[in-house]
Amino acid sequence: KYEKLKLMENELSLTFEFFPTISQINSESQPSQKTYINHNIYQSIVNHNYRSALILEDSIDFEFNIKSIMVDIHRILPPNWEILYLGHCNNWEGKSGEPLPDYKHGQSIYKLFISYRPYCTHAYAVSHSGALKLLKKLVNLTAPIDLELTNIITANEINSYTIIPPVISRCHISDEPINLYPGRDTLDLYSLNHSTLHSLGLNYELNNTLGFSHIYVINLINRQDRREKLEILAKKLNLKFEFFPAVSQDDENELKELEVKNSILKPSQIACYLSHYKVYQSIIQHGYDSALILEDD
Protein backbone atom coordinates (compact mmCIF):
# COMPACT_ATOMS: atom_id res chain seq x y z
CA LYS A 1 0.00 0.00 0.00
CA TYR A 2 2.78 2.40 0.95
CA GLU A 3 4.62 1.99 -2.35
CA LYS A 4 1.53 2.60 -4.47
CA LEU A 5 0.54 5.58 -2.36
CA LYS A 6 4.02 7.02 -2.92
CA LEU A 7 3.52 6.57 -6.66
CA MET A 8 0.25 8.51 -6.49
CA GLU A 9 1.83 11.14 -4.26
CA ASN A 10 4.51 11.73 -6.89
CA GLU A 11 2.09 11.58 -9.83
CA LEU A 12 -0.24 14.18 -8.30
CA SER A 13 2.55 16.33 -6.80
CA LEU A 14 1.13 15.95 -3.31
CA THR A 15 2.87 15.70 0.06
CA PHE A 16 1.81 12.99 2.50
CA GLU A 17 2.74 12.40 6.12
CA PHE A 18 2.31 8.71 6.89
CA PHE A 19 0.81 8.26 10.33
CA PRO A 20 1.05 4.88 12.14
CA THR A 21 -2.19 3.17 13.10
CA ILE A 22 -3.32 0.25 15.24
CA SER A 23 -3.03 -3.10 13.48
CA GLN A 24 -6.32 -4.50 12.25
CA ILE A 25 -5.32 -7.94 13.54
CA ASN A 26 -5.05 -6.67 17.11
CA SER A 27 -8.00 -8.51 18.59
CA GLU A 28 -8.05 -6.13 21.59
CA SER A 29 -8.56 -3.03 19.44
CA GLN A 30 -11.97 -1.83 20.57
CA PRO A 31 -13.67 1.19 18.92
CA SER A 32 -12.27 3.58 21.55
CA GLN A 33 -8.75 2.21 21.09
CA LYS A 34 -8.96 2.36 17.30
CA THR A 35 -10.07 5.98 17.62
CA TYR A 36 -6.90 6.78 19.56
CA ILE A 37 -5.05 7.33 16.28
CA ASN A 38 -7.68 9.87 15.19
CA HIS A 39 -7.26 11.76 18.46
CA ASN A 40 -3.52 11.87 17.80
CA ILE A 41 -4.13 13.32 14.35
CA TYR A 42 -6.58 15.95 15.65
CA GLN A 43 -4.06 16.84 18.37
CA SER A 44 -1.31 17.09 15.76
CA ILE A 45 -3.44 19.54 13.75
CA VAL A 46 -3.82 21.70 16.86
CA ASN A 47 -0.18 21.39 17.96
CA HIS A 48 1.14 22.38 14.52
CA ASN A 49 -1.46 25.13 14.27
CA TYR A 50 -2.59 23.88 10.86
CA ARG A 51 -5.55 25.78 9.45
CA SER A 52 -6.84 22.43 8.18
CA ALA A 53 -5.67 18.94 7.27
CA LEU A 54 -6.80 16.13 4.97
CA ILE A 55 -6.97 12.73 6.69
CA LEU A 56 -6.68 9.65 4.46
CA GLU A 57 -6.71 5.90 4.96
CA ASP A 58 -4.23 3.85 2.96
CA SER A 59 -6.63 1.97 0.64
CA ILE A 60 -7.65 4.83 -1.63
CA ASP A 61 -7.63 6.10 -5.19
CA PHE A 62 -7.79 9.74 -6.36
CA GLU A 63 -9.48 11.54 -9.19
CA PHE A 64 -6.58 12.34 -11.49
CA ASN A 65 -7.57 16.03 -11.71
CA ILE A 66 -8.30 16.31 -7.99
CA LYS A 67 -6.16 19.44 -7.61
CA SER A 68 -8.23 21.48 -10.05
CA ILE A 69 -11.45 20.08 -8.58
CA MET A 70 -10.40 21.13 -5.09
CA VAL A 71 -9.53 24.65 -6.28
CA ASP A 72 -13.16 24.99 -7.36
CA ILE A 73 -14.47 23.42 -4.15
CA HIS A 74 -12.47 25.79 -1.93
CA ARG A 75 -14.01 28.75 -3.76
CA ILE A 76 -17.48 27.80 -2.53
CA LEU A 77 -16.64 26.08 0.77
CA PRO A 78 -18.14 28.19 3.60
CA PRO A 79 -15.47 29.78 5.82
CA ASN A 80 -17.01 28.21 8.95
CA TRP A 81 -16.62 24.62 7.71
CA GLU A 82 -15.23 22.11 10.22
CA ILE A 83 -15.38 18.78 8.35
CA LEU A 84 -15.24 18.18 4.59
CA TYR A 85 -15.80 14.69 3.18
CA LEU A 86 -13.90 14.03 -0.06
CA GLY A 87 -15.12 10.43 0.01
CA HIS A 88 -18.04 8.72 1.70
CA CYS A 89 -20.01 5.47 1.90
CA ASN A 90 -23.67 6.38 1.63
CA ASN A 91 -25.74 6.48 -1.56
CA TRP A 92 -28.24 8.79 0.17
CA GLU A 93 -25.65 11.50 0.67
CA GLY A 94 -26.63 14.58 -1.29
CA LYS A 95 -30.23 13.48 -1.88
CA SER A 96 -31.70 15.28 1.12
CA GLY A 97 -31.07 18.82 -0.06
CA GLU A 98 -29.78 21.16 -2.74
CA PRO A 99 -26.07 21.70 -3.45
CA LEU A 100 -24.38 24.94 -2.52
CA PRO A 101 -24.27 27.44 -5.42
CA ASP A 102 -21.05 27.30 -7.42
CA TYR A 103 -19.34 30.00 -9.45
CA LYS A 104 -19.55 27.87 -12.62
CA HIS A 105 -23.34 28.22 -12.60
CA GLY A 106 -23.94 24.51 -12.22
CA GLN A 107 -21.55 23.42 -14.97
CA SER A 108 -19.24 21.39 -12.72
CA ILE A 109 -20.25 17.79 -12.01
CA TYR A 110 -18.74 18.06 -8.51
CA LYS A 111 -21.20 19.57 -6.07
CA LEU A 112 -20.88 20.56 -2.43
CA PHE A 113 -23.67 19.49 -0.08
CA ILE A 114 -24.32 19.86 3.61
CA SER A 115 -23.43 16.43 5.02
CA TYR A 116 -26.31 14.07 5.79
CA ARG A 117 -24.88 10.73 6.94
CA PRO A 118 -21.58 10.43 5.08
CA TYR A 119 -20.13 7.40 6.92
CA CYS A 120 -16.58 6.09 6.39
CA THR A 121 -13.38 7.97 7.16
CA HIS A 122 -11.14 7.06 4.23
CA ALA A 123 -10.96 10.68 3.03
CA TYR A 124 -12.08 13.67 5.06
CA ALA A 125 -10.63 17.05 5.97
CA VAL A 126 -10.81 18.77 9.35
CA SER A 127 -10.31 22.47 10.05
CA HIS A 128 -8.42 23.75 13.10
CA SER A 129 -11.68 24.62 14.86
CA GLY A 130 -13.09 21.25 13.84
CA ALA A 131 -10.12 19.44 15.36
CA LEU A 132 -10.56 21.33 18.64
CA LYS A 133 -14.24 20.46 18.71
CA LEU A 134 -13.66 16.77 17.94
CA LEU A 135 -11.04 16.49 20.69
CA LYS A 136 -13.68 17.65 23.16
CA LYS A 137 -16.56 15.57 21.83
CA LEU A 138 -14.91 12.27 20.94
CA VAL A 139 -14.38 10.84 24.42
CA ASN A 140 -15.52 7.54 25.96
CA LEU A 141 -16.47 6.16 22.56
CA THR A 142 -18.45 2.97 22.07
CA ALA A 143 -18.79 3.00 18.27
CA PRO A 144 -16.38 3.17 15.31
CA ILE A 145 -15.04 6.63 14.51
CA ASP A 146 -17.11 7.05 11.32
CA LEU A 147 -20.35 6.41 13.23
CA GLU A 148 -19.34 8.75 16.04
CA LEU A 149 -18.63 11.50 13.51
CA THR A 150 -21.96 10.88 11.79
CA ASN A 151 -23.76 11.13 15.13
CA ILE A 152 -22.14 14.51 15.78
CA ILE A 153 -23.10 15.66 12.27
CA THR A 154 -26.74 14.55 12.52
CA ALA A 155 -26.99 16.29 15.90
CA ASN A 156 -25.96 19.54 14.14
CA GLU A 157 -23.01 19.93 16.50
CA ILE A 158 -20.44 20.51 13.75
CA ASN A 159 -20.42 22.14 10.31
CA SER A 160 -19.82 19.36 7.80
CA TYR A 161 -19.94 19.25 4.00
CA THR A 162 -19.64 16.47 1.43
CA ILE A 163 -18.32 16.53 -2.15
CA ILE A 164 -20.54 14.58 -4.55
CA PRO A 165 -19.53 12.57 -6.46
CA PRO A 166 -16.54 11.60 -4.31
CA VAL A 167 -13.11 12.69 -5.51
CA ILE A 168 -11.37 9.99 -3.44
CA SER A 169 -12.63 6.42 -3.39
CA ARG A 170 -11.87 3.43 -1.25
CA CYS A 171 -10.26 0.57 -3.08
CA HIS A 172 -8.16 -2.50 -2.43
CA ILE A 173 -4.47 -1.79 -2.92
CA SER A 174 -1.70 -4.41 -2.69
CA ASP A 175 -1.95 -7.86 -4.24
CA GLU A 176 -5.72 -7.85 -3.81
CA PRO A 177 -8.05 -6.62 -6.56
CA ILE A 178 -7.81 -2.83 -6.72
CA ASN A 179 -11.55 -2.39 -7.10
CA LEU A 180 -13.85 -5.27 -6.32
CA TYR A 181 -16.63 -4.02 -8.60
CA PRO A 182 -15.23 -1.83 -11.39
CA GLY A 183 -17.86 0.55 -12.71
CA ARG A 184 -20.33 -0.25 -9.96
CA ASP A 185 -21.21 1.89 -6.94
CA THR A 186 -21.51 -0.13 -3.72
CA LEU A 187 -21.68 0.69 -0.02
CA ASP A 188 -18.06 1.77 0.14
CA LEU A 189 -16.65 1.59 -3.38
CA TYR A 190 -17.38 4.42 -5.81
CA SER A 191 -16.16 4.57 -9.37
CA LEU A 192 -13.95 7.52 -10.20
CA ASN A 193 -14.19 9.34 -13.52
CA HIS A 194 -10.42 9.43 -13.99
CA SER A 195 -8.60 7.04 -11.66
CA THR A 196 -5.03 7.94 -10.71
CA LEU A 197 -4.19 4.27 -10.24
CA HIS A 198 -5.44 3.66 -13.77
CA SER A 199 -3.30 6.50 -15.12
CA LEU A 200 -0.26 4.87 -13.49
CA GLY A 201 -0.92 1.66 -15.36
CA LEU A 202 -2.28 -0.03 -12.26
CA ASN A 203 -5.48 -1.02 -14.00
CA TYR A 204 -8.36 -2.65 -12.26
CA GLU A 205 -7.28 -6.24 -11.91
CA LEU A 206 -9.50 -9.09 -12.88
CA ASN A 207 -11.37 -10.05 -9.76
CA ASN A 208 -9.63 -13.33 -8.95
CA THR A 209 -11.16 -13.73 -5.50
CA LEU A 210 -14.82 -13.18 -6.52
CA GLY A 211 -15.18 -9.96 -4.55
CA PHE A 212 -13.79 -11.38 -1.32
CA SER A 213 -10.39 -10.71 0.22
CA HIS A 214 -9.34 -14.36 -0.05
CA ILE A 215 -10.48 -17.83 -1.13
CA TYR A 216 -9.71 -20.90 0.97
CA VAL A 217 -10.11 -24.46 -0.28
CA ILE A 218 -10.14 -27.03 2.53
CA ASN A 219 -8.27 -29.95 1.03
CA LEU A 220 -7.74 -33.43 2.44
CA ILE A 221 -4.04 -34.29 2.37
CA ASN A 222 -4.72 -37.71 0.88
CA ARG A 223 -6.89 -36.29 -1.93
CA GLN A 224 -4.25 -34.79 -4.16
CA ASP A 225 -6.46 -35.71 -7.11
CA ARG A 226 -9.09 -33.23 -5.95
CA ARG A 227 -6.50 -30.49 -5.56
CA GLU A 228 -5.13 -31.07 -9.06
CA LYS A 229 -8.61 -30.78 -10.58
CA LEU A 230 -9.31 -27.58 -8.65
CA GLU A 231 -5.96 -26.11 -9.70
CA ILE A 232 -6.92 -26.69 -13.33
CA LEU A 233 -10.30 -25.07 -12.69
CA ALA A 234 -8.72 -22.10 -10.90
CA LYS A 235 -6.34 -21.53 -13.81
CA LYS A 236 -9.15 -21.72 -16.34
CA LEU A 237 -11.31 -19.24 -14.40
CA ASN A 238 -8.35 -17.06 -13.36
CA LEU A 239 -9.12 -17.55 -9.67
CA LYS A 240 -6.70 -17.47 -6.78
CA PHE A 241 -7.05 -20.31 -4.23
CA GLU A 242 -5.22 -21.06 -1.01
CA PHE A 243 -5.35 -24.80 -0.36
CA PHE A 244 -5.84 -25.24 3.36
CA PRO A 245 -4.98 -28.63 4.91
CA ALA A 246 -8.04 -30.34 6.33
CA VAL A 247 -8.01 -31.99 9.75
CA SER A 248 -8.15 -35.76 9.35
CA GLN A 249 -10.57 -37.89 11.34
CA ASP A 250 -7.62 -40.20 12.02
CA ASP A 251 -5.57 -37.49 13.71
CA GLU A 252 -6.36 -38.02 17.38
CA ASN A 253 -4.18 -35.12 18.56
CA GLU A 254 -6.04 -32.67 16.34
CA LEU A 255 -9.44 -34.00 17.38
CA LYS A 256 -8.58 -33.50 21.04
CA GLU A 257 -8.49 -29.74 20.42
CA LEU A 258 -12.28 -29.80 20.36
CA GLU A 259 -13.76 -30.89 23.65
CA VAL A 260 -17.24 -32.18 22.95
CA LYS A 261 -19.12 -33.64 25.87
CA ASN A 262 -21.98 -36.05 25.26
CA SER A 263 -21.70 -35.35 21.55
CA ILE A 264 -23.30 -37.50 18.90
CA LEU A 265 -20.89 -36.13 16.29
CA LYS A 266 -18.82 -38.63 14.41
CA PRO A 267 -15.01 -38.19 14.21
CA SER A 268 -15.37 -37.14 10.57
CA GLN A 269 -17.85 -34.43 11.56
CA ILE A 270 -15.60 -33.15 14.34
CA ALA A 271 -12.68 -33.08 11.89
CA CYS A 272 -14.76 -31.05 9.44
CA TYR A 273 -15.73 -28.59 12.17
CA LEU A 274 -12.09 -28.18 13.23
CA SER A 275 -10.99 -27.59 9.65
CA HIS A 276 -13.42 -24.71 9.30
CA TYR A 277 -12.52 -23.36 12.73
CA LYS A 278 -8.85 -23.20 11.74
CA VAL A 279 -9.83 -21.28 8.60
CA TYR A 280 -11.68 -18.74 10.78
CA GLN A 281 -8.50 -18.34 12.82
CA SER A 282 -6.50 -17.75 9.64
CA ILE A 283 -8.95 -15.07 8.47
CA ILE A 284 -8.50 -13.21 11.75
CA GLN A 285 -4.72 -13.63 11.80
CA HIS A 286 -4.36 -12.22 8.28
CA GLY A 287 -6.86 -9.42 8.89
CA TYR A 288 -8.96 -10.28 5.83
CA ASP A 289 -12.18 -8.29 5.45
CA SER A 290 -13.89 -11.42 4.16
CA ALA A 291 -13.13 -14.85 2.74
CA LEU A 292 -14.85 -17.49 0.64
CA ILE A 293 -14.48 -20.99 2.12
CA LEU A 294 -14.71 -23.99 -0.20
CA GLU A 295 -14.35 -27.72 0.34
CA ASP A 296 -12.45 -29.77 -2.21
CA ASP A 297 -15.34 -31.96 -3.37
TrEMBL record:
Entry-linked InterPro entries: Collagen_mod_GT25 (IPR050757), Glyco_trans_25 (IPR002654)
GO MF annotations, alphabetized: transferase activity
Glycosyl transferase family domain mapped to chain residues: 213-297
CDD domains: Glyco_transf_25
Keywords, comma-separated and alphabetical: Glycosyltransferase, Transferase
Family, similarity comment: Belongs to the glycosyltransferase 25 family.
PANTHER family: GLYCOSYLTRANSFERASE 25 FAMILY MEMBER (PTHR10730:SF53), PROCOLLAGEN-LYSINE,2-OXOGLUTARATE 5-DIOXYGENASE/GLYCOSYLTRANSFERASE 25 FAMILY MEMBER (PTHR10730)
Protein name: 10362_t:CDS:1
Source species taxonomy: Eukaryota, Fungi, Fungi incertae sedis, Mucoromycota, Glomeromycotina
